[in-house]
Amino acid sequence: MTIGERVKARRLELGLSVDEVADALGKNRATVYRYESNEIEKLPTTVLEPLAKVLKVSPGYLMGWEDEETKEDDGKDEINNLQSTVGERLKSIRMKKGVKVSEIAKELGISERAYRNYENNERDLSTMTLLKICLYFDVSSEYILGIDDKTKSLSPAIDGKKALEAKLETLSTESLEELDKFMDYLLWKEEQ
Question: How many Å apart are CA 152 and CA 141, to the nearest integer?
């Protein structure tokens, strides 16, 4: 079996669309099709390792060096895995809700690359960004941060998230920084 055949077979086994794989890799769907059809035979490690992670196998399996798939066997759906990282939770909730990286990046006012850095755990979330993400996906910060494994909705007090978002957009940078500090204080206070 070729690398491309292994990629396609595993993608189909996981029930992933080409678009989902492309989005997770930061590539376009044509590139993924080229991987699967062996038009691109020599995958650099910068592609091979993330691709193996998306497909939940080892890079060695994709390359044909291992006969058996080395699957991540945590026994739980990633969305409910308390041990998953912030990036994995961000990606999982985004994919489950059918949101493209470009959509959430635009909503947050950041580049797609910056958002991918959050999902790849290459960049830490600020409190303000965390709040915006929680509002957008209607999940608690405890879920995103791995404190709670349930994707419960935000409290009814924040039910008017559109109104809150509108207010956030009218604040100056100075006021947003002040709000960020206040939110850090509230989070600290809740821990006490």
Answer: 10
